Amino acid sequence: MKVLVIGGGAREHALCRSLSQDPVVTELHCAPGNAGIAQVATVHPVDQLDGAAVTALARELGAELVVVGPEAPLVAGVSDAVRAAGIPVFGPSGEAALLEGSKAFAKDVMAGANVPTARSYVCRTPEEAAEALDAFGAPYVVKDDGLAAGKGVVVTSDLAEALAHAASCEQVVIEEYLDGPEVSLFAITDGTTVLPLVPAQDFKRALDGDQGPNTGGMGAYSPLPWAPEGLVDEVLETVLQPTVDELRRRGTPFSGLLYAGLALTSRGTRVIEFNARFGDPETQVVLARLRTPLAGVLLASANGTLGELEPLRWDEGAAVTVVVASEGYPAAPRTGDPIEGLAEAEAEGAFVLHAGTEEGPGGSVLSAGGRVLSVTATGADLAAARELAYRGVARIALKGGQHRTDIALKAAGQ
Ligand code: AMP
Predict the structure, then answer these.
(1) Ligand 1 mean position to 271 CA, how many Å?
(2) What is the pLDDT of residues 105-120, one digit of tens each?
(3) Using a 6 Å cutoff on CB, does residue 325 contact ligand 1?
(4) Which atom of ligand 1 lies nearest, measured to the CA of 179?
(5) Where do the H-state alpha helices sit in 294-351?
(6) Dihedral angle at the C-alpha atoms of 149, 151, 152, 157, nearest 10 degrees?
(7) Rounded CA gap, 3 and 163, in Å?
(8) Tens of pLDDT along the chain (414 residues)?
(9) Is 183 a pocket residue for ligand 1 (Cβ < 6 Å)?
(10) Which pTM value belongs to this model?
């Protein structure tokens, strides 16, 4: 199978790594990719948001499956363009991707499907926002309605800050605060059948102890030894299947990856948000544990034949990923610095997935984004996987580079 992956972050590197290990994959391409992806796939320049350009590339390569990684191309309708050309594509239509692209749409679908989520108001004016904030009280949760690359949500006890964020967005969703630990649960679906993957947890704040600003994610681990038994079945039954059924009923069937961000509150499991694609950095640990070859699963989602697949097989052990970010991330990341120690990190038993990197002169690798690397390791348990991942991180040299030291620390019982 010839496969083309769209995107260029650590999530796409994880996807490409798994696809490159699948014996049915004869050719692997990625656009635009990054310096790490270039080691396992042939990379091509492309405007990811241009459906016609992506389709032309897929045709030229004779791709038999296109996998769209990030949300922006999905919302822009890139998978619609590829599908219209008769090429199987993993990823929802632009309309179905609104589940991520519009928080108001997601709330409406959840209401229709009776899916448990935070109570909320959609507000368009400062007056409406003030009223909604007053109704819920602190801590305040204010979400930009549109795609904001993980930066659209403000959770604060400061009313002025909440009002200011609301005023800076055209339309906001203001909702009740959900307490309790967060879980990310991914499911692969073809619009009818829903196959949940294993749960993971990510770390959104920049600094140890969940301090500092929100980021795209600073690390992740799987499994969650503390999660209640039966969580996956419960979420399948109360969240994932009803949402997929509701979208089909509305005439916007959702195929691809449905990501449920959940809060396990004292009053039960609630959806914090849906995403329409693999999450980053959770994908790095979830795919590290998947034993079933990936390409066949993604193709079955694209072709509507997921119901015919054997149950997915998983590694019983654990996986941990630690993000190495550049100096100044997330506010003002500095780029263009050389990265050293990549081979040494892998010699320690970790594998290094690249996020924002590019090839520099003489085969060197340069930082090219906020999140630079996702240093990942597996082990018999979380403590073992952590140990290897952090040994790997210790070998990486990046000027001003930063990482959290407490990824999976509590869950590993350390
Ligand atoms: P999101 O971009 O929707 O993933 O939100 C970013 C982060 O904001 C989440 O991972 C949560 O930690 C937090 N968050 C979002 N919604 C809520 C809520 N209703 N209550 C508490 N925290 C929230």
Answers:
(1) 10
(2) 999 999 999 999 999 9
(3) no
(4) 21
(5) 294-303, 342-347
(6) 160
(7) 46
(8) 999 999 999 999 999 999 999 999 999 999 999 999 999 999 999 999 999 999 999 999 999 999 999 999 999 999 999 999 999 999 999 999 999 988 889 999 999 999 999 999 999 999 999 999 999 999 999 998 877 655 688 999 999 999 999 999 888 999 999 999 999 999 999 999 999 999 999 999 999 999 998 899 999 999 999 999 999 999 999 999 999 999 999 999 999 999 999 999 999 999 999 999 999 999 999 999 999 999 999 999 999 999 999 999 999 999 999 999 999 999 999 999 999 999 999 999 999 999 999 999 999 999 999 999 999 999 999 999 999 999 999 999 999 999 999 999 999 997
(9) no
(10) 0.95
Ligand 1 centroid to residue 181 C-alpha, Å: 11
Whether ligand 1 lies within 6 angstroms of the CB of 182 is answered as yes
* Any atom of ligand 1 within 6 Å of the Cβ of 261: yes
Distance CA 410, CA 408 (A): 6
Atom number of ligand 1 nearest to Cα 103: 3
Distance 272 CA to ligand 1 centre (A): 6
Residue 349 near residue 391, CB atoms below 8 Å: yes
Dist. CA 55–CA 78, nearest whole Å = 8
CA of 202, closest atom in ligand 1: 10
User: In whole angstroms, what is the distance from residue 391 CA to residue 350 CA?
Assistant: 8
Ligand 1 close to Cβ of residue 118 (< 6 A)? yes
The strand pair at 182-189 and 194-196 is best described as antiparallel
Q: Give the chain's radius of gyration (CA, Å).
A: 20
- Whether ligand 1 lies within 6 angstroms of the CB of 142 is answered as no
Is the separation of the CB atoms in 276 and 92 below 8 Å? yes
**Best of 154, 155, 169 for a ligand 1 pocket test (most atoms within 8 Å of beta carbon):** 155
Single-letter amino acid, residue 33: G
The residue whose C-alpha atom lies closest to atom 6 belonging to ligand 1 is: 153
> What is the C-alpha to C-alpha distance for residues 171 and 314, in angstroms, rounded to an integer?
41
Run of H or E including 74: helix 71-75
The token duo for 403 is 């990482």
From the CB of 154, is ligand 1 less than 6 Å away? no
User: Which residue from 273, 280, 282 has its CB within 8 A of the most atoms of ligand 1, so it is best to mutate?
Assistant: 273
Give the E-state strand segments of 266-355 in sequence order: 268-275, 318-325, 339-340, 351-354
